[in-house]
Design a protein that fits this description.
Layout: E1 2-5, H1 11-23, E2 29-34, H2 69-77, H3 90-107, E3 111-115, E4 119-126, E5 129-134, E6 139-142, E7 144-147, H4 160-164, E8 168-169, E9 186-189, H5 193-202, E10 209-213, H6 238-256, H7 260-265, H8 267-276, H9 279-288, H10 290-297, H11 302-313, E11 317-321, E12 324-329, E13 334-338, E14 343-346, E15 348-351, H12 363-370, E16 401-403, H13 409-412, H14 418-437, E17 457-460
Parallel strand pairs: 1-2, 2-17, 7-16, 8-15, 9-10, 9-15, 10-11
Antiparallel strand pairs: 4-5, 5-6, 12-13, 13-14
Helix pairs in contact: 1-3, 1-14, 5-11
Bound molecules: flavin-adenine dinucleotide (FAD).
Length: 463
């Protein structure tokens, strides 16, 4: 049987597996989905009902060409009154993805297998073959692999002593990470969407939560009823785009009363604009504009904003603008000094700075980079990829290895939310199946392609 192996089971891995099941088209394909956990990834594994999607239900369908799929599922399984504009619990979305994958599995001629383990290496062992090694000792030989591993939170900002402390939570989305925190005050580092969720989870009448970031700005808020996106035609270098975007936002806000419609209208052209920037402009954007972009582009649900405002008004949440200068574990607490001069003693420090872009911070990606199977993406973010998500190696050589989601940020900039990931999953599945079943006469030259072997795709990540 032709065998496709797949690596990783967050939303991106699950959707890639689903699209591969669809793409099998009557062929007997084998797909292996690998993840150390039960899958769904950190975003959609939470069972805290206060953790809501930050995109309305209408924007979260697993299928780009069936936009009502998630809303229909919610109406059938959860609440017939759900509106397309509703912001539902993220755990529900995890259930939806699992159901979607199971449906695809039932309909498909392909077989889906799961492995519970972490992939530690992917080697390019033949012209059309990769070897995928798991920390369980298992070795899979596949015709292709898809890296759907997302990106883990980075802790480079944290003093070494703090990282070593038991009072430091490096990944708030790790299972049970927030369960054992002391009841005393806490400091959250980062003030984006992760901070918002962590505040809602940790808020207690007896506890003050401090949150610090360089800008001290929290995400903007969605409107309850979405204004249709307003498109724009923009070109030019970073300076020209800054001017163009500002003009577009002002004009749209005047016409519709909602600046969000202008930002949402840029979504279809964001990747093209990013690609057109020079390396210097990309680096400059990351230094000076990215935070402002993220605050307006990645917004929180109105109900989440109301809950956060209530905690702030109660005086239990204090926002600081600055950086952590020192953080010392004194045995029964952590003594912290911020760059704005604030000194505080807290029971724990939680990292809410979000994922890092540097791929060498991940052990598996570091081995791919070291072996020349992958190269760092533009602006030092993620991995460099072709348009269909195929990973580009050090010399431009292409192994049968694809990726999607956050690892394509350097190539596309906006590549972390479901509306982008669902399209990428479909593209990757098409490209993988095409590569496996492509007649030999149409194969690329040996140095651009892997050879031989059974048709076998490995997806790294679980589900
Ligand atoms: C808290 C939070 C809330 C979010 N809310 C929204 C939202 O409302 N709407 C939206 O569109 N987007 C949202 N996002 C963006 C989110 O990143 C994507 O929607 C999506 O969850 C990303 O999925 P992923 O599979 O690419 O990555 P992840 O969810 O990070 O999953 C990666 C998986 O790969 C596995 N893995 C990693 N390394 C290995 C390895 N070496 N071997 C095997 N497996 C491995 C991990 O265990 C994990 O299960 C949110 C993100 C976060 C963090």
């Amino acid at each position: 049987m032709a065998m496709v192996a797949v690596i990783g089971a967050g939303a991106a891995g699950m959707l890639t597996a689903a699209r591969l099941l669809d793409a099998a088209g009557g062929r007997a394909l084998r797909i292996v989905l690998i993840d150390p956990g039960r899958g769904r990834g950190p975003a959609y594994s939470t069972d805290d009902g206060r953790h809501l999607l930050n995109v309305p239900a209408a924007g979260m369908s697993a299928l780009p060409d069936a936009p009502d799929d998630f809303v229909d599922w919610l109406r059938e399984r959860v609440d017939p009154e759900i509106k397309p504009s509703s912001f539902v619990a993220r755990g529900r979305y995890g259930d939806y993805l699992a159901d979607h994958l199971a449906d695809c599995e039932r309909r498909s001629s392909a077989v889906l297998e799961r492995r519970y383990g972490r992939v530690v290496a992917v080697d390019h062992t033949g012209r059309r073959e990769v070897t995928v090694r798991l920390d369980t000792g298992e070795v899979l030989v596949a015709s292709a692999a898809v890296l759907a591993t997302g990106t883990a939170p980075g802790v480079a900002w944290a003093p070494a002593g703090l990282v070593a402390s038991e009072r430091f939570v490096g990944d708030p989305w790790a299972p049970g990470a927030l369960d054992a925190l002391p009841e005393s005050d806490v400091l959250l580092v980062g003030t984006g969407l992760t901070m918002v969720d962590v505040v809602l989870s940790l808020d207690r009448p007896s506890r003050s939560v401090h949150a610090v970031s360089r800008h001290g700005v929290v995400p903007a808020v969605h409107r309850s009823e979405k204004t249709p996106p307003v498109a724009a035609e923009l070109t030019g270098d970073l300076q020209a785009l800054r001017t163009g975007v500002l003009r577009h936002v002002v004009k749209t806000a005047r016409r519709t009363g909602d600046w969000r419609a202008a930002i949402d209208g840029l979504r279809p052209i964001t990747a093209q604009l990013w690609k057109s920037l020079s390396d210097d402009d990309k680096a400059e954007f990351l230094r000076t504009d990215a935070r402002t972009w993220d605050v307006h582009r990645h917004r929180m649900a109105p109900i989440t904003a109301e809950r956060l405002a209530a905690v702030r008004e109660s005086g239990r949440l204090c926002l600081h603008r600055g950086e952590v200068v020192t953080a010392e574990d004194t045995g029964d607490a952590v003594r912290v000094l911020l760059s704005d001069g604030t000194a505080m003693t807290v029971g724990a420090v939680v990292n809410c700075t979000g994922p890092v872009g540097d791929p060498s911070a991940d052990p598996l990606l570091a081995t791919l980079l070291a072996g020349g199977l992958a190269r760092t993406g533009p602006a030092g973010l993620g991995l460099d990829t072709a348009d269909d998500g195929r990973v580009l190696g050090a010399t431009g050589r292409r192994a049968p290895l694809w990726t999607l989601g956050a690892l394509r940020r350097g190539a596309l900039w906006e590549s972390t939310a479901m509306p982008e990931i669902r399209c990428q999953a479909a593209e990757v599945a098409r490209a993988v199946v095409d590569c496996i079943y492509r007649p030999a006469a149409r194969r690329l030259p040996p140095d651009h392609e892997t050879a031989g072997g059974p048709a076998y795709v490995v997806l790294v990540g679980g589900g």
